[in-house]
Amino acid sequence: MMNRRRAALTSTAALALAAGLPLSVLAQQKKIVLGFSQIGAESEWRTANTESIKQAAKDAGIELKFSDAQQKQENQIKAIRSFIAQKVDVIAFSPVVESGWGTVLREAKAAKIPVILTDRAVNEKDDSLWVTFMGSDFLEEGRKAGRWLVDNVKGGEVNIVELQGTVGSAPAIDRKKGFEEVIKGKPQYKIVRSQTGDFTRAKGKEVMQAFLKADPKKINVLYAHNDDMAIGAIQAIEEAGLKPGQDIKIVSIDAVKGAFEAMMAGKLNVSVECSPLLGPQLMKAVQDVVAGKTVPKRIVTEETVFPMESAAKEFPKRKY
Ligand code: GYE
C-alpha cells in the first residue's frame, strides 16, 4: 500500500511533469535532511556551537537530526551509523578525537552519503572520505598564545603549567604543538607541568589544584587550551590565596563571554579567539553539496587575539 506522503509526492511529481517542470526543480524543493553528531556540552564554546548549528538549520529550512555524544567516540559512531540507516542526505560531525574513524567513514561512503567535518579534524589518509573540513586552525591558535607570552611576559625564568584539552583531540594536539613551536629555543620559557583537563571547568580546577599543591611558588604562567579550564583554574588559584592574572599570568583560547568577564575583572590576561559560529557556513556547504556544487576541501575560520586591555570595549560586541 502506498503511504500518504508517497502518494502526495507522486501526484506532485505528476503535476510538475505535466507543467513541464524538470524533476530537478522538484528535488530542490524537497527538504534536505542533515544528520549532525555533536561531541557533547563540555564547554561554553560547545554550547554556542550547538546553538549556531540549530539556528542556522532552522533559518535554511534544513531538517536537522541532532545527536549529542556526551564526549564519547562510540556514541558518535553509533549516531553516524543510525544516520546512514535513516538515509539522511548529508552527515556532519565534529570528531571528539582524531583517530579511529576509517571504518564508519567508509560505511558512509559506500552508502553514498557525503560527510562534512566541522570544528575538529580526523587523522585519516584517505581524504575522499569527507567532502570538506570547516573550522579553526588550532596550530595557529597555539602559536598566537605562545607569541603573546613571549611578547608580554619577559625577564627571568618563566615556569609554565599547561592544561591540555581532551586527550587525542585535534585542538589539544595542535594547540600544544603551536605553543611549543614558539617557545622552542627560548630556554627561559619552560613547561614544568602539563596535564589534561578535558576542556571542562571542573577538571581545569581540579588539575590546577594539584599543580599548585605540587609547586606552590614556582608557577608564573598558566596556558589553558580553552577558557573553561582557565576559569576553573582561576577558582583554584584564588582558593590558594594567589591572584590570577597577576601572581600567575593566564593565557587561554576560545574568547567566550566568560573569558571576557574574567579579563574585565583582571583575572585572565589574554584569550585567543576560536569561533564556534559555524552554523551558517555548514548549512551553505550542505546545500551546495546536495546541489552537486564543488565546495573547498578546507574552510578556515578567521580569528584574532583579545588581550585583557581590549576586553571592556569588545565585550558588548561578542556573540558567544
Ligand atoms: O576550544 C573547546 C571545546 O573543538 C575548538 O572544544 C573546539 C574546542 C574548544 O570544548 O572549548
Automatic annotation (TrEMBL):
CDD domains: PBP1_galactofuranose_YtfQ-like (cd06309). The keyword Signal applies. GO terms for cellular component: cell envelope. GO terms for molecular function: carbohydrate binding. Keywords: Signal. Residues 35-293 form the Periplasmic binding protein domain. It is found in: Cell envelope. It comes from the Bacteria. Residues 1-27 form the signal peptide. It holds the Pfam family Peripla_BP_4. PANTHER family: D-ALLOSE-BINDING PERIPLASMIC PROTEIN-RELATED (PTHR46847), GALACTOFURANOSE-BINDING PROTEIN YTFQ (PTHR46847:SF3). Belongs to the bacterial solute-binding protein 2 family. This is ABC transporter substrate-binding protein.
